[in-house]
Amino acid sequence: MLRSFRLGNHRSFLTEQELLLMPRFDKSRYVLPVTAVYGANASGKSNLLSGLAFMQSAVRSSFQRWDALEGVPRTPFKLASAAAGTPSVFVVEFKTGGVAYTYGFAMDDERIGEEWLYSYPEKRKRIVFERTGSEVKFGSTLRDAKGELGVLGQMTRGNALLLSVAVQLNLEFAMPAYRFITRDLIFSSSEGLSNPRTEALGRFIVRDPNNQRRVVDLLRAADLGITDLLVEEDEDPMWSRSVERAEAELQKIDAKMADDVDEEYRNSVRDRLNFLRDSGPRKIHRVKTVHGDLAAPFDVAEESQGTRSWLRLIPIALGALDRGSVLLVDEIDSSLHPLLTARLVGLFRDERTNPNGAQLIFTTHDTSLLGTMLGDEVLKRDEVWFVSKEERGDTSLYALSDFKPRKEENAERRYLQGSYGAVPFVDHDEFVMAVRGERD
Questions:
Q1: pLDDT of 352 higher than 70
Q2: CA angle 90, 93, 98 (to 5 degrees)
Q3: Dihedral of alpha carbons 110, 12, 35, 183, sign
Q4: Which CB contacts under 8 angstroms, 24+ apart, belong to 399-402?
Q5: Is residue 42 within 8 Å of 389, Cβ to Cβ?
Q6: What is the pLDDT of residue 257?
Q7: Is the entire prediction scored with pTM above 0.85?
Q8: pLDDT tens-digit series, residues 190-234
Q9: Which own/partner pairs from 128-136 qualify as long-range (CB within 8 Å, at least 24 positions apart)?
Q10: Which of 76, 167, 223, 282 could form a cystine bridge with 236, CB 3.0-4.6 A?
């Protein structure tokens, strides 16, 4: 469960801003099951999610994939020259395995300046580790592992996260935070809908016989005219090409004189070929839709953008609900009807469909979600956040609950009227003058 996320000096976020996912009114829940972020175009909504995605990427890849000589691939705020010399900060507070944690780091273009991990067993703070530059302080619970910690310190480069290195050494203290950040944060965006790929949906369906029924039932419930799905399995052509390349490479090596061949290189190619053969042909999955009693199924590319969007969201939403993960969706309303978005929100709020405490965090322009649909309140007052662009171009993040709205207040109308900010200032006469070329 994600309790909060704080970031600073990342893209449009200059000063540190914090997204709090803790209930303000209903204290019966530990975290909010749903959080929506509103704001004008180019105000920073997507940058908020990209900050969390960057943190995930850094934890997963800083040790193995970041070039040791290339520094840190961060993206600081560009509209203020001083930001280039200011650290970027990323911090998450979460709960996993019944224990609360805080993990964060600060970095400049060259190195990790600070990194820390705290746990809170029985609600009391316990230091797991604190890092400042090359100096690392470990908590008292790790004192028995001095040898392993010494190796950890030696292997941690200036531009690699200690958490990433500790996982490669299979050190248990790092596993809960690593698993949560890299596996329990699931990202989805509207990109790729024009070139739909159904591999993820196909894998989800074949993984469990019950999944196809769940997906089809959700398609029927969405009133899209789809009555069934067909999954076709084919051999992955990439696997075949990889085998052919390895075979050709090995033949080329064996055709050379023995003295000219590096035996270690030959063995590595042979091992790669054996691995490919032993693993067998990889399968790719193509999903087709069935409409009523029509004999010919449809390719997903023939479906509408709205249907594609729903097909894209279903497997990751069901996966998040099944595992109790955090699903982050940028522009959830892209090609999706407001009533479908409302129903998806409802699945995360309803404990019958979300018994494992999954969370849905999304950005949107859909103001109808701020009101009531079919007599139901879609978003509660503490589930709504706004981003607004300040004069210097940086993003400010704040909650609807900061305005102390009354329960019966029409949040949709007040938002569109500008009472909460986070709306574009657009004047019709300026548009007319721009089209007519009359602006100075």
A1: yes
A2: 150
A3: negative
A4: 399/20, 399/24, 401/24, 401/25
A5: yes
A6: 53
A7: yes
A8: 554 444 467 888 889 998 989 999 999 999 999 999 999 999 887
A9: 128/173, 129/162, 129/173, 131/162, 133/158, 134/158, 136/162
A10: 282
As a whole number of angstroms, the distance between CA 326 and CA 183 comes to 9
Closest by alpha carbon to 83, among 396, 394, 391? 394
Measured CA distances, 201 to 211, 306, 324, 366 (Å): 10, 16, 19, 26
Positive or negative, the CA dihedral 95, 97, 102, 103 is negative
Least confident of 148-162, 385-399, 421-435: 421-435
Q: Is the pLDDT of residue 259 over 80?
A: no
* CB of 281 closer than 8 Å to CB of 240: yes
Which token pair is 406?
């009354």
The mean per-residue pLDDT over the stretch 178-196 comes to: 75
